[in-house]
Design a protein that fits this description.
The protein has 329 residues and is mostly helical. It is built from 14 helices and five strands. Bound molecules: tryptophanyl-5'AMP (TYM).
Length: 329
């Protein structure tokens, strides 16, 4: 049986990018695999969350996961900091991770640009902690969006390096995974780039319908095509990409036809998109609120997940220590 693992940082609510990029793949795979899903709260520390908010952020993300269909009786769902073995593996792996390769990571370079006042060492070694998450369970497949591709590549590099250095085949070489083969990048509403937590361009599963409508009606468009069958500019392509995720194929085809014949009215398209997004998110929103308010259930899920995850984590750590030469007196 193969092992599948995926995770999400607890720095904000779940948006459509998280859902279509990673979560839905994991939910589909949980039954046929040995599955792990976790909330990356150590990773969230790179942006210095207020201690008052830390726990609540985890609680929100955990409720959202569960509402999306992760079954805690099937998959092992846990909070990263409840399995402190990951920090030891992170330390051990960091000895074989080179500063040059970490500095060249795209996400690190982006962070330098975005938060020059807080370029902490945790940001530099972010990919090492992520590799530790994955290798702790010796995962074969990791459902993620396109933005995490490079981190997965680094995980493979660290796993291969460890195997080579210690002449072992202990670590599996994990693959980024998506059912459609190509990793997905869900765009934001601002006409460029990906939907992200820190970009302020996202539609969240927990968003109120009125908020969704407002966000979509404000999405960036242009004055419309002037030539038939012309190529769509980035912002318009993005709206169509979002529509393909939530609307019926004939709806997408209808607006595509209107675009190609230069008769498109973006207002109508956005109204339709808003309606379809709201229909898509409503059942999730209701479930999220229900789970979020159920203390007893959340505690049970977290405790049960941590216990299961730690059994595996301890085994991995014990093997890694032995391979590296640690011995008891
Ligand atoms: P995070 O929390 O930013 O995102 C969680 C998952 O959602 C995917 N995703 C997207 N997919 C498509 N389009 C988008 N616009 C989009 N935005 C986000 C991400 O690719 C990710 O799969 N470093 C990770 C968390 C993590 C992790 C791990 C993931 C820590 N350790 C080990 C997998 C395995 C992160 O920040 O994801």
């Amino acid at each position: 049986m193969q092992t599948v693992l995926s995770g999400i940082r607890s720095t904000g609510n779940l948006h459509l990018g998280n859902y279509f990029g990673a979560l839905t793949n994991f939910v589909k795979m949980q039954h046929e695999n040995n599955s792990y899903f976790f909330v990356a709260d150590y990773h969230s520390l790179t942006t210095h969350p207020n201690p008052k908010d830390l726990h609540n952020n985890v609680r929100k993300v955990l409720s959202e996961y569960l509402a999306c269909g992760i079954d805690p009786d099937v998959a092992t769902i846990y909070i990263q900091s409840d399995v402190p073995e990951v920090t030891e593996l992170y330390l051990l792996l960091s000895m074989n991770a080179y500063v040059g390769e970490l500095e060249r990571t795209t996400t690190f370079k982006e962070k330098i640009r975005k938060q020059p006042e807080n370029i902490n060492a945790g940001l530099l070694t972010y990919a090492v902690l992520m590799a530790a998450d994955i290798l702790l369970h010796n995962a074969h497949k990791v459902p993620v969006g396109k933005d995490q591709e490079q981190h997965l590549e680094m995980t493979r590099k660290f796993a291969r390096r460890f195997n080579k250095m210690y002449k072992t085949d202990f670590f599996n070489i994990p693959k980024a995974y998506n059912f459609g083969n190509e990793l997905v990048k869900v765009p934001g509403l601002d006409g460029s780039g990906k939907m992200g937590k820190s970009e302020g361009n996202g539609i969240y599963l927990a968003d109120d319908p009125k908020v969704i409508k407002k966000k979509i009606m404000r999405a960036v468009t242009d004055s419309g095509p002037t030539e038939q069958n012309s190529e769509k500019p980035e912002a318009i392509k993005n709206l169509f990409t979002l529509m393909k995720l939530v609307s019926k194929p004939d709806v997408v085809q209808f607006f595509d036809g209107k675009y190609n014949s230069c008769e498109i009215r973006y207002g109508d398209m956005k109204k339709q998109l808003a309606e379809d997004v709201i229909n898509f998110t409503t059942p999730f929103r209701e479930k999220i609120n229900e789970i979020y308010n159920n203390d007893v259930y959340l505690r049970k899920v977290a405790e049960q997940g941590a216990e299961k995850a730690r059994i595996n984590a301890r085994k991995t750590l014990s093997s890694v220590r032995e391979i590296m030469g640690f011995k008891k007196f």
